[in-house]
Amino acid sequence: MSLLGLLSDYTIQNVVIGAALLGLVSGTLGCFAVLRKQSLLGDTLSHAALPGICLGFLVAGTRDIASMLTGALITGTLAALVMLVLTRHSRLKTDAGLGISLSLSFALGVVLLTYIQGTNNAAQGGLDSFLFGQAAATLRSDLWIMGGITLAALALVMLFWKEFKLVSFDPAFAATRGLPVATLETGLTVMVSLAVVVGLQMVGVVLMAAMVIAPAVAARQWTHRLGTMVLLSALIGIASGVFGALISAMGRGLATGPLIILSASVLVVISLLFAPGRGFVWSLLSQWRARRHLRSQQVLTTLYRLAMEHKDTTYRTQQGMVDTYYGIGTRLSLARLQKNGLVRLRGQDALQQPGWELTTDGITEAQRILDGLGHGDRR
Q1: Looking at the 3D structure of the chain, how many domains does it have?
Q2: For this UniProt entry, which segments traverse the membrane (predicted)?
Q3: Sorting pLDDT into bands at 50, 70 and 90, what band is 353?
């Protein structure tokens, strides 16, 4: 089936729109979790949403998406507040507090899920799909709920942009400015809970943590500005959601949630490898250039020292002598120096053996290098 044919399908439209909304809200809010060094927060909140889903089902008596997502938001927020209380009023670090909240919440959720499965309620069929997501079950009415949550979260980010930015980078300074740091941090945590709630049906409890973190991690490699990072993270999240949904639709029996996460992971890997200034490949290239530059400087200063030893600035050093001194071929380094006008090859006739001679610029540059090292040798 062609791409246009896929997009004309009602179910696929719902999945693609839902995945785009998920990528937008999780990419935006995930930036603040990453900058606050709370990457485990998404994992905690997503696992803490499971008991809320179960409680929402028990209250409604059926699989009412609004009731279950409301329950997920409440329990996710409570788990986050427990983490904040533990870290603020005890000696526990943030990761320990998050781990405690995650374990307790998920254990409670599994107990409630087991209880519901034992009630013989016909409506509970497929409730465990929230563990790994069931994107195909997304309805147009679900999209309105997801869209409303996304819109509310983005509105809050825009409204409190300066405050959230300051709290994320320097909470101590924010406190000295009189900002309610605890309230703002709680607000950010609740908003990440909103992002988790949006993604529960699409990617599930287990994989939602990656959707909160992956777009932000990828975006962080490309920029040093928060505004640009948030925008890139949102775009990466949307692209991951849409690509994953379309690949799932074109395949046979391929789960949408894991494909969305794999799409985001591919973008993370690309960013880690190729982002200018931060990427692994960029770092290797910079190191290679630095080594090459250092080797050229070493060869240039060696030619200068030999010339000074012979008290002749026009002294010619043969290629073999330089190679023997360094134990490796130096022709490429000398060629670079020649290209930059620092050395020249002279005496290539029958009467003289060819040798490398410093130019005036080469002498000046060698003296500058040696003076910078603190042991210049001017004669």
Answers
A1: 2
A2: 12-35, 40-59, 65-86, 98-116, 144-161, 188-214, 226-247, 259-285
A3: low
Is residue 271 situated within a structural domain? yes
**Closest Cα to residue 208, out of 99, 151, 131, 103?**
131
Considering the domain architecture, whether residues 296 and 316 belong to the same structural domain is answered as yes
**Range with lowest mean pLDDT among 3-7, 228-232, 255-259:** 3-7
Query: Can you read off the two tokens belonging to residue 132?
Result: 């790994």
* Residues spanned by the domain of 294: 282-373
Kindly report the pTM of this predicted structure. Answer: 0.79
- The CATH number of whichever domain residue 317 belongs to comes to 1.10.10.10
- 345 and 248 in a common domain: no
